Amino acid sequence: MATYFLRRLLLLIPTFFGATILVFIILQLAPGGPLEQTIRQIQMGGMTQGEGGSAGAGDMTSGGGAGLPAEAMEELKRFYGFDKPIIQRYLIWLGVWPREHDSRNLEFGPGENEVEKNMGRGQWVTVKKTADGYVMYNDDGSINSDWLIRPLDPAEDGAARALVYKTKLSGILTGDLGTSYTYMQPVLDVMKPRFKISIFFGISGFLISYIVCIPLGIAKALRHGSPFDLFSSVIVFIAYSIPGWALGAVLLLLLGGGSFWDVFPLGGFRSENWEYLSLWGKVMDQLYHAVLPMIAWTIGSFATLTVLMKNSIIENMSQDYIRTAFSKGLTEKRVIWIHALRNSVIPIASYIGNVIGVLLAGSYLIELVFNIDGFGKLGYQAVLDRDYPIVMGFLVIAVLLRLIGNILSDIALATVDPRIRFK
Amino acid sequence: MENTATVDQAATAQQQISLSVLKKRWLKFKSIKRGYYAFIILITAYIISFFLPLLINNRALVVKYEGDIWFPVFQGYIAGSTFGEDVPGEANYRELKEKFRSENGNWVIMPPYPYGPFEDVTTAGNKMYEEPSGVHWFGTDNTGRDVFSRLMYGFNISLSFAILFTIASYLIGVSIGAMMGYFGGKFDLITQRFIEIWATLPFLFVMIIISSIVRPNFFLLIVILTLFGWIGMTYYMRAEFYREKTKDYVAAAISMGQSHKKIIFKHILPNSLVPIITYFPFAVIGGIGSLVGLDFLGFGLPPPTPSWGQMVSVGLQNMVKWWMVLAPLGALFTTLLLIVFIGEAIREAFDPRVYSRLR
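YS: structure for the whole thing
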């Protein structure tokens, strides 16, 4: 069994790489990426300031960046990492290829072979161009090896240019998801507060649906065919056919105070003055905001879980061991709660892993409807903004959660059902 | 899911001992009233929805003008000046009808519900945010388009989309799943790994990424959705084929020298239809859900296609105009509920496990 799970864990690795490579390629090769978007913004900005034609007009060689000086184009490309081939970009993103940072441009005057450059913190260096490359000297004449230099395309007037930079290994394997383009913050810092919100909904939704569905499924199974069963079946049917976000939209419309009753707030995670509320006020405010999204969140698994539980109990109740238990003279209570239930929760257990995946994946629409700044909405917004570091970070976390969820399902299954032996 | 209708199966089986399995299942399906009626209602509504231009349209069915007879519904765009109307662009048939009422010999026959899904405030007489009334049954939206009309056209689009999507993803899913189960070995192993990667991707998220890059139309959107939709069926098909290929009739077919293709499609597939048929309605539900979700996010069908998701999305920005949200969502719920009923009945007809309870 241990070897089985070890193998499952090892299989995570190729799956993870496969999934990230796929999306990475789609993102990087797609037209209209962050580079094009920034160029467009700059051009539009230039236009509104009435100087659209002045800067580098006539430079039509740079393709998409028409109207932008070649050097600015180059800088932008470097900022977004598009100056490197795609494989290298992926490796840098992974953190197994050195990432350039703190880069500065050097420009040699016409005929000059030496340039002085301020590297910050009062450190001046001299870069000399020699026949086989560039050499950097400190103030005291010693060779500086902290910085790396590579040549850039010469400027339009033929002057030589070079880039001075440092490198470090920094990518997802070292825990660095990069820096968001829109928030200008490390991706993880952007995600953290939103992650908390999604986890709040995910975990409480998970608990609520299990607390409601298991007893409901049992009750329905024991009273199979009764008015209670038929009535609750209708609710289950409706719950099954309605997407959670759509139900949320209806509830919001009916109870959010738009045209009908004003019972719940129109969305948001907490009130704006949440910080200043008393503890009791905080709890109530949180609940007040959470009721409707929570219903939307749980409705999807509600139907599936209830029916799973019901059918599972019914199936077990027709088994021989239940007949034996009854014929031994055990009470119905004991037969159901001790004998049948243990076997009936097996299929439910395998559902646990799903919840972890759903924790994130199913939530964009609900978060959008209720205007909750959760994880899903962040991912959605990042796609709109072409904020690729966040998009990739979102993907990494979503993929990892799903993979781990699958394994958790198996572990739960093996725990509940001692007959199951994974090989 | 449920097991409500109890049919005396033994008696039925005895009476129709000569019936084929499929026929028996059809009879069983018919006996489950909820599902059967839902099926009839949905099929009727879907067939009618193909004739919507004749029923719900701003173009007249027939126009008689100066002795000539016109059929604008079939002829398409006809300039208003053709009928002596003083409007820019297309004729306004509703106004024309009023005008002709007093004229001798000229007349207009409008469809029963004379508002089209595309005409907005630019057509004379249309207003934004009109409340539901006898004229506009479900009111008008933010651009003055008739909500009821868009709703009905959206029904046809949603259902057609979902059915085509399901067929497309089943074609791929069944073939690949069948090959995985039938051939096994390396092909199975490699495809399984690939499917594992594919299935790990957050489906809606990648859909959003792709749709934000290529502005999809109806068929492109089906292709994109199918890229992800085919996976579910492979699991069932693979299991079915693994089981079936060890059976004697397959061995017989192989020993007779039948080709792989024939064995897969002619011998095994007819015996593995149960999951295909029973999951079909639920895949259609998934298709509608995905389409409406994508439309809601703004990554679905291009405007001004009448789509429920887009209607909800606009409606939620105008919370006081309740009809703009309730109408499309009501249509969505009704449609999905009907399909769930059908799906349940089909499942019950094909999977006749009778749950018996002691005591």
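YS: worth flagging: Chain A touches chain B through 64 residues (CB under 8 Å).
IM: good catch. Also Residues 7 and 423 of chain A are 10 Å apart (CA to CA).
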